[in-house]
């Protein structure tokens, strides 16, 4: 066999292997589609002997660790016996401690994450739980009550979609029994994969939900609004449009603390420890999600628990006094926390009725944390933190006027989101611009050199740019922006954001470099070089090809083929002995 | 389920006739004049995407899934696999040059899933009760399915009684069954069809008839709403979001399949 034939055979073998791999990835097995959306569905019931207990998990092959089971059981029920009669909905977030993910699921998830806005990426280490809890009088039960929860577990932060989904499934399940969960799971197993940018129609229990999966860069002012259809769809309509996968009603949830909205934004932005105390899990999780969302499109990088109980496996870790409070946001309802978390620097206390809140005189000043002794304390923000930025009176006035004139919630919501988004963008703009200045120049990308990388981030250098062209130009807000930046640089939010940008940019540079390589006349270059340089190039080419598979770079197959062919032809041009070594 | 889904829309311009003129309560012979008018004024796509929901019920193993698969995926799978819960398909039509989607909810015939069917009946525009032409019991049982549907449905729906496995039915047996089925159809106020999913006999024709009747009705209603003036905004709002969200419809229209029209 001559070397050309050999090369061709090798190429064919490689292609075959690739296509086999692709086939493996493309084959659809039962539960594959389901697993792209949900981890599983659990039913938690109150057992007289055991307390909260897992009644069943569907699909049944899903295994949860004991820790996960325990957390799910406690988090699926109200923590304190504070009523919650009838039906209640809330959600939680737990650490995932179980299970290996099969390779092919992982490939799809990576692809999803790459094309998704950061705040909608799947969570690799946590599971979200969406709870529908029913508590009603039931004479047939020995305890006199029917108490049961349906919980959807997922890695996707689709707060809005899954809240609606469990609201569709749970009441029917309480009515009809286990078969309904089975049928609902089967419906979900027919859903198309969540591909960013796609609009999907998802059949579920006789109706079809239409959702748009946002793509990277889709999260803009327009797309942010919850745009809850002002016109309700006719009953029994074959299609329900779900306006947003993840948006929560920011205005409604944050209304009780509106006067402190900027202060809260700073606390969230800089990953300060924050606890939200509320009368029910529904209220705490609304508030926690709304807080996380204040810095959107930035992703909140540390842990947050929309609902956290004293039974949580992280309870000790998060409440210990031997270290300072962790940089997390917790939502709690149990009065016990008022004492346990007394030492926390920032406490948000939300009252029972979050709608009626107009008492301006008392609410305007943050309260001292020491004054919070019990959960009976007044609603408000308890902190000694002083905002770096001065208060924006305009937005406060506009929102207050809206409350007085009973402006629709949707409009207030859009106004508040827009304000927060612009604030975050003003803050991030200088950073984005600075990072762009760290990019190497196009002419530094040479096929014969290593791919260039982003230069290092220099805090002082950045702050010098802020002096003359900082956020004060776009936002109009006065204050100590520099100190806020310094605080931000110490936070995980900054680390996460920068790492993400760095990775994106370096990947882009890699791609540009690959393109330059594929367009270069490799053979001509080799003709003018020493053998040792040529060998070096072959090794580099192989390294690049390796990069493509290892980092799963989005490269056209033609480019890969071109690089393969280039490598092969260089090898063929070499003397036989060297060829033998390189072809191994 | 959708592995070999045909991407071409089915296009209909003539109103499909019933299987037997004497075995249908629906006397409509053509699209309503106002519907034709509305459709012909739809050059700009102003009507938006219309859709209807159709639910398929019937005893276990009568061939509900085979019927749906034959039509939607153009396949016939001889191996029997029980449906869990409900299978779902959307079939795209182009009726009088207007895009129309038929949602097909294919339910499980097993007893243990009977309790969940109610959730799936909601808002159905068409109910297809399927029975096996070679099994008398499944025809008799169609009455039970009918009662179930009537109990769960709040609004009127088009009702079809469909006998399957025509290909393995001997002629004498077939005549006998057909007579019984026609009788039952009359009693239930349903339209009767006899089909074979294996040979594809009448399957295409049947679903095009279903789609045309549903389309005619939906369009008429949306127009009545419009002239009423009250609900106009609702319909338009819901639909306009639909059409803007489905940009892919246009791209695949190059090659249209023609059915039930010449």
Automatic annotation (TrEMBL), chain A:
A Pfam entry, by short name: Avl9
UDENN domain segment(s): 39-508
GO cellular component, one term: recycling endosome
A molecular function GO annotation: guanyl-nucleotide exchange factor activity
Similarity field: Belongs to the DENND6 family.
PANTHER family listed in its UniProt record: LD41638P
Protein name as annotated: Protein DENND6A
Automatic annotation (TrEMBL), chain B:
Superkingdom as given in the UniProt entry: Eukaryota
Family annotation (InterPro entries): P-loop_NTPase (IPR027417), Rab (IPR050227), Small_GTP-bd (IPR005225), Small_GTPase (IPR001806)
Cofactors, names only: Mg(2+)
EC number of this enzyme: 3.6.5.2
Catalytic activity of the protein: GTP + H2O = GDP + phosphate + H(+)
Localization per record: Golgi apparatus membrane
PROSITE patterns assigned: RAB, RAS
NCBIfam families named among the record's database cross-references: small_GTP
Job of this protein: The small GTPases Rab are key regulators of intracellular membrane trafficking, from the formation of transport vesicles to their fusion with membranes. Rabs cycle between an inactive GDP-bound form and an active GTP-bound form that is able to recruit to membranes different sets of downstream effectors directly responsible for vesicle formation, movement, tethering and fusion.
Protein name: Ras-related protein Rab-36
Taxonomic source organism: Holothuria leucospilota (Black long sea cucumber)
